C-alpha cells in the first residue's frame, strides 16, 4: 500500500467523525483556491526574476546563468502542477455547488409536497362536488327570481282592445262636433242688391274696378274660412 493510501486510510478510519457540511467544504475549497492562486502569482514572479538573471549573466558568467535557468525550470514545473491542482479543485467546487443546489431544491420540494398534503387532508372530493352542485342550484334559483321580478305585472288589465278603440273614436267625434258648432259662418244677405244707377261714362271704369275689388275681397274671406274649417277638422282627426 502506498504512503498516500496509508495517509487517507489512517485519517479516515474514525467512523465517529461527522462529515462536514456542504457549506464548510465549499469554504475550505475556496480557501485552498485562494492559497494556490497566491502561490501561482509568486512562482510567476520568480520565473521572471530567474529569467532576467540568466539574461544578465549570459556568457559573462555561464555558471550563474545556468543556475538561474535551472531554478526557472523548477518554478515552471511547480507552476504547472499548481495549474492542474487549481483545475481539479475548481471542478470539485462546481460539482459540490451543484450538489448543494440540487439538495436544497429537493428539500424545498419535499417541504412543498408536505404542505400540499396537509392542505389536501381537509378536502374531500365528494364534498367539493356537492358544494359545486349546490352553488349551481342557487345560481339557477337566483336567475329564476330575477326573471320573475322582471316580468310585467298586469292585475286587472284584461280589457277588450276593440271596445276601447270604439269608445275613443266616439270621444273624438264628440269633440269634433263641439268644435264645428262653435265655428261662425258669414251671414248671407236676404234682400236683393239695389239697382245700379246710370253711370257717367267717365266714372264707369272706377266703379267697375271698385266692384271687382269688393268681389275679390269676399272671395278671399270665404277661402280663408274654408281653410280654417279644414285645419280644425285635421286637428280633430
Automatic annotation (TrEMBL):
Biased composition (Low complexity): 205-219
Location of the protein in the cell: Cytoplasm, Cytosol; Late endosome membrane
InterPro entries from the UniProt entry: Snf7_fam (IPR005024)
Predominant location: cytoplasm
GO biological process: late endosome to vacuole transport via multivesicular body sorting pathway; protein transport; vesicle budding from membrane
Any Pfam family the entry gives: Snf7
Annotated segments matching region Disordered: 1-24, 177-237
Alphabetical UniProt keywords: Coiled coil, Cytoplasm, Endosome, Membrane, Protein transport, Transport
GO cellular component: cytoplasmic side of plasma membrane; cytosol; ESCRT III complex; late endosome membrane; multivesicular body
Keyword hit for Membrane: yes
Membrane topology label: Peripheral membrane protein
Family: Belongs to the SNF7 family.
The protein's name in its UniProt record: Charged multivesicular body protein 4c
Organism of this sequence: Lipotes vexillifer (Yangtze river dolphin)
Encoding gene per record: CHMP4C
Amino acid at each position: 500500500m502506498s504512503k498516500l493510501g496509508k495517509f487517507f486510510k489512517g485519517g479516515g478510519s474514525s467512523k465517529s467523525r461527522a462529515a462536514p457540511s456542504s457549506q464548510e467544504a465549499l469554504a475550505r475549497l475556496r480557501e485552498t483556491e485562494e492559497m494556490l492562486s497566491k502561490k501561482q502569482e509568486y512562482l510567476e514572479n520568480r520565473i521572471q526574476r530567474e529569467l532576467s538573471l540568466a539574461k544578465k549573466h549570459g556568457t559573462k558568467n555561464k555558471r550563474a546563468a545556468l543556475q538561474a535557468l535551472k531554478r526557472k525550470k523548477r518554478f515552471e514545473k511547480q507552476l504547472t502542477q499548481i495549474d492542474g491542482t487549481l483545475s481539479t479543485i475548481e471542478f470539485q467546487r462546481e460539482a459540490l455547488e451543484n450538489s448543494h443546489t440540487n439538495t436544497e431544491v429537493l428539500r424545498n420540494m419535499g417541504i412543498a409536497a408536505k404542505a400540499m398534503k396537509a392542505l389536501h387532508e381537509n378536502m374531500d372530493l365528494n364534498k367539493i362536488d356537492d358544494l359545486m352542485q349546490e352553488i349551481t342550484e342557487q345560481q339557477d334559483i337566483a336567475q329564476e327570481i330575477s326573471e320573475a321580478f322582471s316580468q310585467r305585472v298586469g292585475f286587472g288589465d284584461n280589457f277588450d282592445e276593440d271596445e276601447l278603440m270604439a269608445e275613443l273614436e266616439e270621444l273624438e267625434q264628440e269633440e269634433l262636433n263641439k268644435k264645428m258648432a262653435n265655428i261662425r259662418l258669414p251671414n248671407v244677405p236676404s234682400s236683393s242688391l239695389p239697382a245700379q244707377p246710370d253711370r257717367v261714362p267717365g266714372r264707369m271704369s272706377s266703379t267697375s274696378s271698385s266692384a271687382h275689388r269688393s268681389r275679390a275681397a269676399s272671395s278671399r274671406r270665404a277661402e280663408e274660412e274654408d281653410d280654417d274649417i279644414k285645419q280644425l277638422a285635421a286637428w280633430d282627426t
